[in-house]
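Quick check before the chapter quiz. The format below is the same one you will see on the exam, so make sure you can read both the input and the output lines.
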Amino acid sequence: MQLSLDNDGWYTIRAYGPEGVTIALPPGERAENPVVEEENGFRNERLDVLPGSFLVATPGHLDRGWPPQTFEELERAHFEALAELNVEVLLLGTGDRIRFPHPQVTAPVNEAGIGLECLDTPGACRTFNVIAAEGRPVAAAILATSGAT
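Here is the expected output.
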């Protein structure tokens, strides 16, 4: 699915699908895995395809290699690190379907006063853009969908 939102110095999620999630990069940053248009082979260096799990937060934080690649790999230590982010809301994209980690695993985020929303990965991608566009501090911890590796 294609999403549209202009970014003004922060990361926005532009699309998601079996190949991964496409992120629009802020000015001056170049893609590691740029989008290549099929019709003409044009490489768009401002759009980066992220095939695995990642963490994105406003105003300008992107971790292309967020450690857990599957829901089953989520651990308390991941949420301890997420609790250090200066955000109001943490969106957890749990892959192809909505899943809820055990409360003991997510406790550090709750103790930090950060709202946690568990969504499927497409829903987390859409919601991140909406909250970011409102200017609110938000993070999205996105697990890869089954079609992405």
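If your answer matched, good. Confidence is low (pLDDT under 50) at residues 1-5.
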